[in-house]
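Have a close read of the entry that follows and walk me through the local backbone shapes. See right below:
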Amino acid sequence: MKDLIIIGAGPAGLSAAIYGIRAGLDLLMIERFSPGGQVMNTHEVENYPGFVDPVKGWELMSAMENQARRLGAEIINGEAGAIIKDKEKNVFSISLSNGKSLIARSVILACGSANQKLNIPGEQEFTGKGVSYCATCDGAFFKDKVTAVIGGGNTALEEALFLTRFASKVYLVHRRYEFRGEKILQQRILANNKIEPIYDTIITSIEGKEKVTKAILKNKSTNEKKDLLLDGVFIFVGYSPNTAFLPEELLNTRKEVIIDKNLQTKIHGIFAAGDMRENSKRQIVMAAADGATAAMNAYDYLQEMG
């Protein structure tokens, strides 16, 4: 039996492990893919404190992982299923998709979030054939090609700028009249002659034969539709928390984990950190802070339990 099990090994989970180990907790991390989370797909991070110059997303997360492992963190590959609390013994049983189960005295949920889908015709059909959710991963396949980025937040703006390294043209399609991303990113977008913003517009379908050849756009004000000839569509319209395995009592209407000021969930002994919790700003530094806070509060909880 472990003192603490951390589900997820992104910024929140790795920070929780670092603080948990330093507090003397016997802990284990469960990660269904590879450590690092969404940040692994980020080309450059320039707002994480301590780095004068931008740092590659994978470099930042690799450093976090190596730090956690150096301190003694054990990370296993697996996908968590049901979490059941034995109220008499005050312990948690966590089932894994491979049929095994683990026992812990406390749990930190740090599962992050996944790219949100548009759920429009052609999106699923052409995923990997012109539709992508990661410019860092797939941008090089679109050298001298025409692409469109869908979204208006920080991620969409950053990925549009990254795509200009390869694509000959990048349309930036946003459903509002102005972008939601940081002003410094907006300024860079407007100053880049490879990027053409298209405001007040949504994408209604993606079409092609063996690969993407066009997208159908609709102006929200006029309802006018037009064909946009292109080779690739990159979708960045938000994230959905990875909470499908959790009981409904822990979640709000947006499927985010409900927490109190100590990051405690409605089940005593289970904490939540990072992008999956309610009111998260989805920033690396904030997820890391969440992880540290959750680990310290888990330690206090265990001390109270004796």
About this structure: The longest strand covers residues 201-208.
